[in-house]
Prior knowledge:
Elements: H1 3-12, H2 20-29, E1 37-40, H3 43-53, E2 57-62, E3 75-79, H4 82-99, E4 107-112, E5 118-127, E6 131-138, H5 141-146, E7 149-153, H6 158-166, H7 171-175, H8 185-201, E8 205-215, E9 220-222, E10 226-229
Antiparallel strand pairs: 1-4, 2-3, 2-4, 5-6, 5-8, 6-7, 8-9, 8-10
Helix pairs in contact: 3-4, 6-8
The structure holds adenosine-5'-diphosphate (ADP) and magnesium ion.
Amino acid sequence: MTVSEIVANARREGRTNLTEIESKELLASAGINTTKLKIAKSREEAISLGKESGFPVVLKIHSPDIIHKSDVGGVKLGLGGEDEVGRAYDEIITSVKQSQPEARIEGIAVQHMARPGTEVIIGMTKDPQFGPVIMFGLGGVLVELLKDVSFRIVPLARRDAREMIREIKGYPLLEGYRGQEPADIAYLEEMILKVSEFVDNNSEVREIDLNPIFAYSDGAVAVDARVILEER
Ligand code: ADP
Ligand code: MG
């Protein structure tokens, strides 16, 4: 589907929040690297999609009504084979039905388990005064606990992307602190610029959250993505 088809489809359903698969399709069209996923409608289909993508895999709830998937027990990681996928499928459905009974469950998303990397996030929100603003930070507990993030106003120049990565306190982690795998900083700069360009070209996007992105010494990949559209 194209960007306008995805947006039109969500509008038709009266949604402003896009699902992970829709969000990743939009961002992939802007050249942003994401883990690919497919939607299973049954346990059997989840198993065959797991085989197709190669174990280990990750299963996640696919619902237009659920934004924070882990909060409702909707994410199962590191599933090594068919039995584990089958069990995880049932567990996710049970857990989601318990924690959010009114949520429409449209399937379970299956994707390959990405190799661990340094977790970073790239986000976009709209400031009432400055308009679209891009945020960069370290992912996981570091962002929640320390709010170690930097901001720049869209459209970003290459220099903005360079600076915003280097000015976070956790920057030494990205350089390879104490034996940690160094991150491909040039690649992250490029990713930030692509998000900025995407935002600049798509005014109906209100919010973007790439959380987390796994950064490697060679490239990076967004394993989760959330796009929210403007109300009409
Ligand atoms: P949530 O909607 O709760 O933010 P996520 O899709 O971010 O759900 O998944 C929760 C966590 O699971 C992520 O923070 C990440 O650490 C891990 N994760 C998600 N997808 C993958 C993947 N494809 N490969 C490896 N780890 C993943
Ligand atoms: Mg997430």
